[in-house]
Specification:
Length: about 300
Protein backbone atom coordinates (compact mmCIF):
# COMPACT_ATOMS: atom_id res chain seq x y z
CA UNK A 1 0.00 0.00 0.00
CA UNK A 2 1.37 3.41 -0.97
CA UNK A 3 2.14 5.55 2.09
CA UNK A 4 1.60 9.26 2.52
CA UNK A 5 5.32 10.02 2.79
CA UNK A 6 5.87 8.13 -0.46
CA UNK A 7 3.28 10.30 -2.19
CA UNK A 8 4.53 13.50 -0.68
CA UNK A 9 8.15 12.99 -1.60
CA UNK A 10 7.42 12.87 -5.31
CA UNK A 11 4.24 14.91 -5.65
CA UNK A 12 5.92 17.98 -4.25
CA UNK A 13 7.90 18.15 -7.47
CA UNK A 14 4.66 18.16 -9.43
CA UNK A 15 3.43 21.07 -7.38
CA UNK A 16 6.71 22.97 -7.43
CA UNK A 17 8.64 21.98 -10.59
CA UNK A 18 11.29 24.62 -9.93
CA UNK A 19 12.21 22.71 -6.78
CA UNK A 20 14.46 20.39 -8.74
CA UNK A 21 16.77 23.30 -9.58
CA UNK A 22 17.10 24.16 -5.93
CA UNK A 23 17.81 20.60 -4.95
CA UNK A 24 20.46 20.21 -7.62
CA UNK A 25 22.20 23.36 -6.35
CA UNK A 26 22.32 21.90 -2.86
CA UNK A 27 23.79 18.68 -4.22
CA UNK A 28 26.43 20.66 -6.10
CA UNK A 29 25.36 19.40 -9.53
CA UNK A 30 25.21 22.02 -12.25
CA UNK A 31 22.06 21.27 -14.23
CA UNK A 32 20.83 23.86 -16.69
CA UNK A 33 17.85 25.83 -15.51
CA UNK A 34 14.58 24.55 -17.00
CA UNK A 35 12.70 26.87 -19.27
CA UNK A 36 9.40 24.97 -19.14
CA UNK A 37 7.99 21.93 -17.41
CA UNK A 38 5.37 19.42 -18.54
CA UNK A 39 3.88 16.89 -16.18
CA UNK A 40 3.70 13.61 -18.09
CA UNK A 41 1.53 10.57 -17.34
CA UNK A 42 3.18 8.29 -14.82
CA UNK A 43 1.61 5.10 -16.18
CA UNK A 44 4.34 3.33 -18.16
CA UNK A 45 2.16 0.35 -19.08
CA UNK A 46 2.04 -0.34 -22.81
CA UNK A 47 -1.44 0.33 -24.20
CA UNK A 48 -0.81 -2.34 -26.83
CA UNK A 49 1.30 -5.47 -26.54
CA UNK A 50 4.86 -4.78 -27.64
CA UNK A 51 7.07 -7.79 -28.27
CA UNK A 52 10.56 -7.39 -26.88
CA UNK A 53 12.89 -10.34 -27.11
CA UNK A 54 16.52 -10.78 -26.23
CA UNK A 55 18.26 -13.22 -28.54
CA UNK A 56 19.22 -15.69 -25.80
CA UNK A 57 18.73 -15.57 -22.04
CA UNK A 58 20.51 -18.02 -19.75
CA UNK A 59 20.47 -18.46 -16.00
CA UNK A 60 23.93 -19.43 -14.81
CA UNK A 61 24.35 -21.17 -11.50
CA UNK A 62 27.73 -20.41 -9.95
CA UNK A 63 30.05 -21.92 -7.43
CA UNK A 64 29.45 -19.13 -4.95
CA UNK A 65 25.69 -19.80 -5.02
CA UNK A 66 24.93 -16.49 -6.71
CA UNK A 67 23.14 -17.25 -10.00
CA UNK A 68 23.64 -14.86 -12.90
CA UNK A 69 21.45 -14.00 -15.85
CA UNK A 70 23.29 -13.94 -19.16
CA UNK A 71 21.54 -12.10 -21.97
CA UNK A 72 23.18 -12.65 -25.35
CA UNK A 73 22.63 -10.43 -28.38
CA UNK A 74 24.00 -10.80 -31.90
CA UNK A 75 24.82 -7.48 -33.52
CA UNK A 76 25.58 -7.22 -37.21
CA UNK A 77 26.08 -3.49 -37.54
CA UNK A 78 26.08 -0.23 -35.61
CA UNK A 79 22.62 0.81 -34.52
CA UNK A 80 22.24 3.86 -32.25
CA UNK A 81 18.86 2.53 -31.06
CA UNK A 82 20.24 -0.69 -29.63
CA UNK A 83 21.87 0.57 -26.41
CA UNK A 84 18.48 1.76 -25.16
CA UNK A 85 16.98 -1.65 -25.96
CA UNK A 86 19.86 -3.38 -24.21
CA UNK A 87 19.37 -1.23 -21.13
CA UNK A 88 15.69 -2.15 -21.19
CA UNK A 89 16.51 -5.86 -21.36
CA UNK A 90 18.94 -5.61 -18.45
CA UNK A 91 16.54 -3.64 -16.28
CA UNK A 92 13.60 -5.88 -17.12
CA UNK A 93 15.28 -9.17 -16.33
CA UNK A 94 16.71 -7.71 -13.12
CA UNK A 95 13.25 -6.65 -12.00
CA UNK A 96 11.61 -9.92 -13.10
CA UNK A 97 14.13 -12.48 -11.88
CA UNK A 98 15.89 -10.50 -9.14
CA UNK A 99 19.23 -11.79 -10.38
CA UNK A 100 22.20 -9.75 -11.54
CA UNK A 101 22.25 -9.55 -15.36
CA UNK A 102 25.17 -9.67 -17.76
CA UNK A 103 24.82 -8.56 -21.36
CA UNK A 104 27.01 -10.24 -23.97
CA UNK A 105 27.16 -8.85 -27.51
CA UNK A 106 28.56 -11.04 -30.29
CA UNK A 107 29.83 -9.40 -33.49
CA UNK A 108 31.55 -10.45 -36.70
CA UNK A 109 32.69 -6.97 -37.62
CA UNK A 110 35.52 -5.28 -35.71
CA UNK A 111 34.13 -1.77 -36.05
CA UNK A 112 30.73 -2.92 -34.78
CA UNK A 113 32.32 -4.78 -31.89
CA UNK A 114 34.35 -1.76 -30.80
CA UNK A 115 31.26 0.42 -31.04
CA UNK A 116 29.18 -2.01 -28.97
CA UNK A 117 31.88 -2.22 -26.29
CA UNK A 118 31.77 1.47 -25.47
CA UNK A 119 30.02 2.30 -22.18
CA UNK A 120 26.79 4.19 -22.77
CA UNK A 121 25.34 6.46 -20.12
CA UNK A 122 21.68 7.34 -19.83
CA UNK A 123 20.53 10.53 -18.18
CA UNK A 124 21.88 14.09 -18.13
CA UNK A 125 25.62 14.39 -18.67
CA UNK A 126 25.94 16.11 -15.29
CA UNK A 127 24.58 13.05 -13.47
CA UNK A 128 24.10 9.90 -15.55
CA UNK A 129 21.37 7.68 -14.16
CA UNK A 130 22.51 4.42 -15.73
CA UNK A 131 25.67 3.25 -17.46
CA UNK A 132 25.48 0.29 -19.82
CA UNK A 133 28.69 -1.74 -20.04
CA UNK A 134 28.13 -4.89 -22.09
CA UNK A 135 30.67 -7.61 -22.64
CA UNK A 136 31.53 -7.84 -26.32
CA UNK A 137 33.19 -10.62 -28.29
CA UNK A 138 34.25 -10.30 -31.88
CA UNK A 139 37.22 -10.39 -34.22
CA UNK A 140 38.98 -7.80 -32.06
CA UNK A 141 39.36 -10.12 -29.06
CA UNK A 142 38.57 -13.70 -30.10
CA UNK A 143 41.57 -16.01 -30.71
CA UNK A 144 42.48 -17.00 -34.27
CA UNK A 145 42.79 -20.78 -34.22
CA UNK A 146 44.54 -22.11 -37.31
CA UNK A 147 46.10 -25.22 -35.77
CA UNK A 148 44.19 -28.45 -35.02
CA UNK A 149 45.86 -28.69 -31.60
CA UNK A 150 44.35 -25.34 -30.64
CA UNK A 151 40.92 -26.40 -31.83
CA UNK A 152 41.02 -29.68 -29.91
CA UNK A 153 41.65 -27.88 -26.63
CA UNK A 154 38.26 -26.15 -26.77
CA UNK A 155 36.05 -27.08 -29.68
CA UNK A 156 33.16 -24.86 -28.57
CA UNK A 157 35.36 -21.77 -28.30
CA UNK A 158 36.93 -22.62 -31.64
CA UNK A 159 33.47 -22.79 -33.20
CA UNK A 160 32.57 -19.33 -31.95
CA UNK A 161 35.98 -18.09 -33.06
CA UNK A 162 35.43 -19.42 -36.58
CA UNK A 163 32.09 -17.62 -36.78
CA UNK A 164 33.39 -14.30 -35.47
CA UNK A 165 36.39 -14.44 -37.82
CA UNK A 166 34.29 -15.09 -40.90
CA UNK A 167 35.86 -12.05 -42.63
CA UNK A 168 39.41 -12.78 -41.50
CA UNK A 169 41.97 -13.29 -44.31
CA UNK A 170 43.04 -16.48 -42.50
CA UNK A 171 39.53 -17.94 -42.48
CA UNK A 172 40.61 -20.72 -44.85
CA UNK A 173 43.22 -21.97 -42.38
CA UNK A 174 40.75 -21.58 -39.52
CA UNK A 175 38.13 -23.70 -41.26
CA UNK A 176 40.68 -26.28 -42.37
CA UNK A 177 41.78 -26.75 -38.76
CA UNK A 178 38.16 -27.19 -37.74
CA UNK A 179 37.54 -29.77 -40.47
CA UNK A 180 40.67 -31.70 -39.53
CA UNK A 181 39.59 -32.01 -35.90
CA UNK A 182 35.99 -32.87 -36.75
CA UNK A 183 37.09 -35.86 -38.81
CA UNK A 184 37.89 -37.66 -35.56
CA UNK A 185 34.69 -36.68 -33.75
CA UNK A 186 31.43 -38.61 -33.49
CA UNK A 187 28.35 -37.45 -35.35
CA UNK A 188 26.69 -36.07 -32.22
CA UNK A 189 29.71 -33.81 -31.67
CA UNK A 190 30.60 -32.76 -35.20
CA UNK A 191 27.14 -32.30 -36.73
CA UNK A 192 26.09 -29.37 -34.49
CA UNK A 193 29.46 -27.71 -35.07
CA UNK A 194 29.09 -28.08 -38.83
CA UNK A 195 25.64 -26.50 -38.72
CA UNK A 196 26.63 -23.67 -36.38
CA UNK A 197 29.53 -22.64 -38.59
CA UNK A 198 27.42 -22.93 -41.73
CA UNK A 199 24.70 -20.74 -40.23
CA UNK A 200 27.19 -18.35 -38.65
CA UNK A 201 29.04 -17.68 -41.89
CA UNK A 202 25.75 -16.98 -43.67
CA UNK A 203 26.40 -15.40 -47.05
CA UNK A 204 30.06 -14.60 -46.45
CA UNK A 205 32.49 -15.97 -49.06
CA UNK A 206 33.89 -18.24 -46.36
CA UNK A 207 30.60 -20.15 -46.35
CA UNK A 208 31.47 -21.65 -49.74
CA UNK A 209 34.87 -22.71 -48.42
CA UNK A 210 33.20 -24.44 -45.50
CA UNK A 211 30.75 -26.27 -47.74
CA UNK A 212 33.60 -27.51 -49.88
CA UNK A 213 35.51 -28.78 -46.85
CA UNK A 214 32.39 -30.52 -45.57
CA UNK A 215 31.75 -32.10 -48.95
CA UNK A 216 35.34 -33.17 -49.58
CA UNK A 217 35.67 -34.87 -46.20
CA UNK A 218 33.20 -37.62 -46.97
CA UNK A 219 32.74 -38.57 -43.33
CA UNK A 220 30.76 -35.35 -43.02
CA UNK A 221 28.04 -36.67 -45.30
CA UNK A 222 25.95 -37.82 -42.37
CA UNK A 223 25.53 -34.20 -41.32
CA UNK A 224 22.24 -32.46 -42.20
CA UNK A 225 24.37 -30.02 -44.16
CA UNK A 226 24.93 -32.77 -46.73
CA UNK A 227 21.35 -32.43 -47.87
CA UNK A 228 22.03 -28.81 -48.75
CA UNK A 229 25.34 -29.68 -50.38
CA UNK A 230 23.68 -32.41 -52.43
CA UNK A 231 20.99 -30.03 -53.64
CA UNK A 232 23.55 -27.46 -54.65
CA UNK A 233 25.55 -30.17 -56.41
CA UNK A 234 22.88 -30.13 -59.09
CA UNK A 235 24.46 -26.97 -60.40
CA UNK A 236 27.67 -27.02 -62.33
CA UNK A 237 29.54 -24.56 -60.16
CA UNK A 238 29.41 -26.48 -56.89
CA UNK A 239 29.97 -29.84 -58.52
CA UNK A 240 33.12 -28.52 -60.16
CA UNK A 241 34.18 -27.21 -56.78
CA UNK A 242 33.62 -30.65 -55.30
CA UNK A 243 35.64 -32.21 -58.05
CA UNK A 244 38.56 -29.84 -57.47
CA UNK A 245 38.38 -30.55 -53.78
CA UNK A 246 38.37 -34.27 -54.41
CA UNK A 247 41.42 -34.03 -56.62
CA UNK A 248 43.31 -32.28 -53.81
CA UNK A 249 41.87 -33.92 -50.75
CA UNK A 250 41.04 -37.54 -51.44
CA UNK A 251 43.18 -39.90 -49.38
CA UNK A 252 43.81 -43.59 -49.75
CA UNK A 253 40.76 -45.61 -48.77
CA UNK A 254 38.24 -42.89 -49.73
CA UNK A 255 37.96 -43.70 -53.41
CA UNK A 256 34.90 -45.87 -52.88
CA UNK A 257 32.94 -42.99 -51.44
CA UNK A 258 34.29 -40.74 -54.19
CA UNK A 259 32.80 -43.15 -56.71
CA UNK A 260 29.49 -42.90 -54.87
CA UNK A 261 29.69 -39.11 -55.38
CA UNK A 262 29.77 -39.61 -59.13
CA UNK A 263 26.75 -41.89 -58.93
CA UNK A 264 24.93 -39.40 -56.68
CA UNK A 265 25.37 -36.54 -59.18
CA UNK A 266 24.12 -38.74 -62.02
CA UNK A 267 21.13 -39.83 -59.96
CA UNK A 268 20.26 -36.25 -59.02
CA UNK A 269 20.27 -35.35 -62.73
CA UNK A 270 18.02 -38.29 -63.55
CA UNK A 271 20.67 -40.06 -65.63
CA UNK A 272 20.20 -43.83 -65.92
CA UNK A 273 23.34 -45.79 -64.96
CA UNK A 274 23.65 -49.28 -66.50
CA UNK A 275 25.06 -51.98 -64.26
CA UNK A 276 28.33 -52.29 -66.19
CA UNK A 277 28.86 -48.53 -65.94
CA UNK A 278 28.14 -48.61 -62.22
CA UNK A 279 30.68 -51.39 -61.74
CA UNK A 280 33.29 -49.46 -63.70
CA UNK A 281 32.79 -46.38 -61.51
CA UNK A 282 32.79 -48.20 -58.18
CA UNK A 283 35.76 -50.31 -59.25
CA UNK A 284 37.95 -47.30 -60.03
CA UNK A 285 40.71 -46.66 -57.49
CA UNK A 286 42.28 -43.56 -59.03
CA UNK A 287 41.28 -40.22 -57.41
CA UNK A 288 42.22 -38.20 -60.52
CA UNK A 289 40.01 -40.35 -62.73
CA UNK A 290 37.11 -40.09 -60.29
CA UNK A 291 37.59 -36.33 -60.19
CA UNK A 292 37.37 -36.21 -63.99
CA UNK A 293 34.26 -38.38 -64.02
CA UNK A 294 32.61 -36.16 -61.43
CA UNK A 295 33.19 -33.12 -63.63
CA UNK A 296 31.79 -34.96 -66.63
CA UNK A 297 28.78 -36.13 -64.60
CA UNK A 298 27.62 -32.53 -64.28
CA UNK A 299 26.95 -32.06 -68.01
CA UNK A 300 26.99 -35.54 -69.59
CA UNK A 301 23.84 -36.51 -71.44
CA UNK A 302 24.36 -40.16 -70.55
CA UNK A 303 26.36 -42.16 -68.04
CA UNK A 304 28.67 -43.42 -70.80
CA UNK A 305 29.73 -39.85 -71.67
CA UNK A 306 31.55 -39.40 -68.38
CA UNK A 307 34.29 -41.69 -69.69
CA UNK A 308 35.10 -39.44 -72.66
CA UNK A 309 38.54 -37.77 -72.94
CA UNK A 310 40.11 -39.88 -70.22
Amino acid sequence: MVSAPHEAMHRIFQEYPELFSRVSEVLGINFAQPTSVTVLPTDLTETQPVERRVDTLLRLETEDDEPLLLAIESQGEKDPRKPASWAYYASYVLAKYRLQPILLIVCQDRATAEWAARPVSFGPRQWPLLTLRPLVVGPHNMPVMTKPAEVRKNLQLATLSAITHGKNPDIGAILKAMATVLQDETDDVKNPVIEFISQGLGKLPAAAQWRTLVAVDLSFYKSPLFEEVRDEARTKGLAEGLAEGLAEGLAEGETQRAAEDVLTVLAERGIDVPEDTRERITGCGDPDTLSHWLRRAVTAASAAEIFEAE
